Q: What sequence folds into this?
């Protein structure tokens, strides 16, 4: 007897594959981490942090005020002499320990990152957390090799540094900030973003497990007022900020006339340029990675897609077919490609700019995928027939929205790519190496990816040109902002 | 002069790895296992093959799991040409196709006349599907026209039999060559393009399979002609087999998840699929001896 | 008096291709304490053991070099972790062998652990420190990048037996080389013990191979092996140094002498690094 092969009477869709969360033990309430201990905020303010995919509260979070910033900076100042005085290798060994603990607690960190921020577990598990561990590991190894990093110049730590990180890569950005600061012998006060404090607080637990000396790192959740107090604190030697260009400009102005080191990693409207000779299927994947990775909440997102006219229709067609296969929904599902928008506020911003794009006459296409009832969602969207003058071509949307424009020649591609106030990143897609390097050299952007996009490595410097900020993170260049040349 | 298509290995492998990390659970997994079994060309290509071995394998292909009647038959039984009569007799009336490798498999280093005669003989003996190898000798010496011409001639020799064309991915030197050779096989009239003989290299890796799926997708998009894909070589686990289905679904769509359009050339994977199926049903891990060994 | 329990005594073996092996020669040497009492037997490695070790190392060289620098750093750090966890055991053995008190023995192991941490940190920084991007006067992009030389023979000093070996194998490993090392001739036990540490530290088979025996029998087949790319002589012995250099000249091996206790860091790595300059046109 033979059995007829299975015919697809119904579709073959993947069953839900949620990451198990039963092993995650969040506290009901998190205090401030100051001077190596959990301390209540002076003003007694607690604010719940919520899961943007369900709008359910996850935990109560202490919010720091100016008095708490004072305490944390004082603790960092007190801890500085002993910390910078440690033999460099010993300092490095603490950072190696942190790297190992991040690896050991990787799954927990990934799940909490996804719960708190809405990003797909596939990304937090495969990108954010491993990259954070790698960053600590790589910079740990620099601690006793600083003499090699700055061309043999005699260096010393900056001192007490204030660090403010955004909500799009909460743990990874904390790692980018803390790893070089600690390796160089600074002490730090870190302020995580208001909507995503949890992994930074888990990192505080890790710092305790690593027996990092008290006060070397304090972690102060809070809103913009805590950040402003940190920036304006008189006993800070350096500020490192990642966030919006608007706030970056305020910080730069606030520090005017003061001898405080400053690095800014700000917004972008990065060009992703596809030439007609590119491997188009891989280019399409790169476009998807460029703009739909982390729901487009990526400062270097490839949000301006520049297509050579001769292949524009072909690429748009392939891209649209690919977009229709994106799986949008529960961030904890291991098969989800695009998760939740980080906050109601951010969703409103995206919706407003997209409406503006339609009003300006661009053609909008949004994937018709089912979206969950609760939570903040925005389906992957493409704008074609965009003119360079349109707001969606100029302003950072910070969401899963790609705007498509065309060019005819290499020179025009460079001109259009550089025609922006920003300069964080760019992508160049071509099968011809000499073209890739020629275009890269002419682009005014801190990172140029050739035939790939949105890749990060602790050995590779990252940072902006122009209004995307200044200073670099990653590689030996990432040490420089945390060192003073004697 | 040959002009290779642009294919970027790093990008292909990244996409393939992402698809390979899909998590297929519960009923989706059971459904995938049944689909995969129905797409298998159950294969034996050994010097030790005998009619007796072929009969045993035929019984397995027809009814892979007597305990689970919902598990379908395999798509075909794939043997050497000398064993086609044995396979034909064992499969008569079952619906499971008789497939034969041909054209001096696996190296293809015999005269074209011999390769055509071998094909005609296999079809005359009852082969309904022919798995030919392209001449890597012609391909690697740059003679694309001969590669196409030979596929055309074998196709003609097949008559009504279905032609699967093996490009032997591991011997071509890169994904751009793989894509180009696949395009040549399609141009020569292949009904199905196939990754590997199973005798060389890693076989149907996710990356290799993805490149070939993209080739048939683009051909269908451009011309409307459907060419199938057969992933063969190195597919030993359920996880690998299900990954292949994910690759098909997310590259070509669910229309392509039928034995007419996608095949898996393998042997040992069948028992691993059955073992995984059993686990899905009972929640307990089985032992190898719970399944028949042919 | 009969002891309450008979201790089980370890058989000491060579460490080749990730496995613990007796010498192909079947011969042994007595390992004695500094006072001259018999402690154990160790394999008397032969030229064929050297041949097998170089073959294993060559097989491991490509895959080891092809790993990411980050991954090699993780593995060397794992070696540091494994070594630290055995510090007491190694120190106790060192006291038994003699010439050390417990504190100095423990300090030697700790220094070796710190050396492993230091070199683990080098793997992904060599490109930044030794490589360059070259502003070529023309439409070219020039990249000079460090690459490992290949298979490196290491001759460890008699003393210190732990730090002398660890401090000598780490620099070539950090640059992505693989190693065939002759352990201390006079105090071979701890050197062979390190094979067990390497074996649990995720170091792939063949990346480090350890041979005990007589330098008078082993230096020549090792340093004269034509499939060896470099030799690091850590003995401080002028006669061995000259012999090694002369043998190495046959296939233009990279020859370096080193005091591994000085922990010279990058300076010890550089001899086993090749710099490759790639030119790429820029223009469309």
A:
């Amino acid at each position: 007897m033979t059995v007829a092969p299975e015919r697809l009477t119904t579709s073959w869709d993947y069953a839900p594959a949620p990451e198990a969360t039963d092993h995650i033990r969040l506290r009901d309430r998190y205090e401030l981490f100051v001077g190596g201990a959990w301390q209540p905020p002076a003003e007694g303010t607690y604010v719940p942090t919520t899961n943007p995919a369900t709008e359910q509260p996850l935990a109560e979070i202490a919010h720091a005020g100016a008095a708490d910033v004072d305490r944390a900076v004082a603790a960092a100042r007190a801890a500085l002499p002993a910390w910078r005085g440690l033999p460099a290798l010993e300092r490095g060994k603490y950072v190696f320990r942190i790297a190992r603990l991040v690896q050991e607690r990787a799954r927990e960190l990934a799940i909490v990152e996804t719960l708190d921020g809405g990003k797909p577990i596939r990304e937090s598990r495969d990108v954010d957390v491993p990259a954070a561990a790698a960053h600590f590991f790589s910079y740990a190894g620099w601690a006793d090799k600083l003499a090699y990093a700055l061309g043999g110049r005699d260096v010393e730590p900056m001192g007490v540094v204030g660090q403010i990180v955004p909500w799009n890569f909460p743990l990874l950005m904390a790692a980018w900030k803390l790893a070089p600061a600690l390796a160089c012998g600074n002490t730090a006060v870190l302020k995580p973003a208001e909507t995503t404090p949890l992994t930074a607080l888990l990192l505080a637990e890790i710092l305790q497990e690593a027996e990092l000396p008290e006060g070397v790192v304090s972690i102060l959740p809070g809103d913009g007022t805590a950040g402003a107090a940190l920036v304006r604190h008189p006993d800070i030697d350096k500020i490192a900020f990642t966030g919006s260009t608007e706030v970056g400009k305020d910080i730069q102005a606030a520090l005017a006339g003061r001898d405080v080191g400053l690095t800014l990693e700000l917004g972008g409207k990065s060009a992703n340029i596809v030439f007609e000779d590119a491997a188009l299927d891989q280019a399409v994947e790169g476009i998807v990675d460029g703009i739909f990775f982390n729901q487009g909440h990526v400062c270097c997102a490839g949000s301006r897609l520049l297509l050579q006219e001769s292949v524009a229709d072909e690429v748009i067609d392939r891209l649209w077919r690919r977009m229709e296969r994106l799986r949008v929904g529960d961030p904890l599902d291991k098969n989800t490609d695009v998760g939740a928008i980080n906050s109601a506020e951010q969703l409103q911003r995206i919706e407003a700019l997209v409406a503006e794009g339609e009003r300006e006459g661009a053609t909008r296409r949004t994937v018709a995928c089912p979206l969950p009832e609760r939570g903040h969602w925005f389906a992957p969207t493409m704008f074609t027939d965009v003119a360079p003058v349109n707001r969606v071509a100029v302003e950072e949307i910070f969401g899963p929205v790609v705007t498509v424009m065309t060019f005819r020649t290499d020179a025009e591609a460079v001109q259009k790519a550089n025609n922006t106030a920003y300069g964080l990143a760019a992508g160049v897609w071509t099968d011809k190496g000499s073209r890739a390097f020629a275009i890269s050299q002419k682009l005014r952007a801190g990172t140029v990816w050739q035939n790939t996009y949105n890749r990060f490595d602790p050995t590779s410097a990252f940072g902006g040109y122009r209004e995307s900020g200044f200073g670099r993170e990653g590689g030996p260049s990432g040490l420089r902002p945390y060192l003073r040349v004697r | 002069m040959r002009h290779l298509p642009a294919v970027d290995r790093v990008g292909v492998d990244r996409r393939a790895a992402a698809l390979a990390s899909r998590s297929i659970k519960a009923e989706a997994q059971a459904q995938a296992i049944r689909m995969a079994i129905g797409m298998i060309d159950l294969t034996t290509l050994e010097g030790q093959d005998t009619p007796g071995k072929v009969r045993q394998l035929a019984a397995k292909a027809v009814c892979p799991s007597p305990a689970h009647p919902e598990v379908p038959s395999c798509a075909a039984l794939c043997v050497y040409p000398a064993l086609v009569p044995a396979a034909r007799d064992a499969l008569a009336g079952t619906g499971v196709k008789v497939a034969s490798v041909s054209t001096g498999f696996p190296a293809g280093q015999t005269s074209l006349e011999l390769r055509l005669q071998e094909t005609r003989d296999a079809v005359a003996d009852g082969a309904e599907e022919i798995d030919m190898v392209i001449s890597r000798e012609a391909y690697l010496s740059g003679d694309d026209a001969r590669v196409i011409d030979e596929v055309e001639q074998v196709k003609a020799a097949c008559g009504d039999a279905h032609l699967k064309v093996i490009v032997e991915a591991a011997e071509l030197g890169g994904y751009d060559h793989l894509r180009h050779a696949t395009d040549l096989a399609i141009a020569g009239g292949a009904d199905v393009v196939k990754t590997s003989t199973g005798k060389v290299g890693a076989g149907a890796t996710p990356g290799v399979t993805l490149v070939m799926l993209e080739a048939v997708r683009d051909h269908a998009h451009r011309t409307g002609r459907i060419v199938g894909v057969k992933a063969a070589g190195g597919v030993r686990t359920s996880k690998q087999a299900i990954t292949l289905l994910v690759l098909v679904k997310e590259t070509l769509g669910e229309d392509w998840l039928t034995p007419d359009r996608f095949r898996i050339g393998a042997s040992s994977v069948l028992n691993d699929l059955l073992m995984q199926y059993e686990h899905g049903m009972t929640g307990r891990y089985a032992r190898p001896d719970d399944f028949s060994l042919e | 008096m009969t002891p309450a329990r008979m201790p089980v005594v370890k058989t000491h073996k060579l460490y080749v291709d990730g496995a613990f092996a007796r010498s192909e020669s079947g011969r042994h040497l007595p390992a004695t304490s500094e006072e001259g009492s018999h402690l154990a037997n160790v394999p008397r490695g032969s030229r064929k053991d050297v041949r097998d070790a170089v073959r294993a190392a060559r097989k491991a060289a490509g895959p080891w070099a092809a790993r990411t620098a980050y991954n090699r750093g993780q593995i060397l750090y794992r070696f540091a972790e494994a070594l630290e966890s055995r510090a007491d055991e190694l120190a106790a053995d060192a006291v038994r062998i003699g010439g050390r008190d417990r504190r100095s023995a423990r300090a030697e192991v700790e220094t070796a652990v710190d050396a492993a941490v230091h070199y683990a940190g080098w793997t992904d920084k060599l490109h930044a420190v030794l490589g360059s991007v070259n502003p070529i006067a023309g439409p070219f992009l020039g990249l000079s990048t460090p690459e490992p030389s290949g298979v490196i023979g290491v001759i460890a000093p008699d003393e210190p037996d732990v730090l002398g070996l660890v401090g000598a194998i780490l620099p070539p490993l950090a640059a992505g080389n693989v190693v065939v090392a002759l352990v201390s001739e006079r105090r071979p036990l701890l050197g062979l013990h390190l094979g067990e540490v390497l074996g649990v530290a995720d170091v792939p088979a063949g990346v480090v191979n350890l041979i005990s025996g007589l330098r008078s029998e082993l230096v020549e087949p090792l340093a004269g092996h034509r499939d060896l790319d470099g030799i690091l002589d850590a003995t401080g012995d002028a006669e061995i140094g000259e012999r090694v250099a002369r043998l190495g000249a046959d296939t233009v091996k990279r020859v370096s002498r080193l005091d591994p206790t000085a922990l010279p860091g990058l300076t010890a790595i550089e001899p086993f690094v090749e710099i490759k300059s790639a030119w790429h046109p820029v223009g469309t």
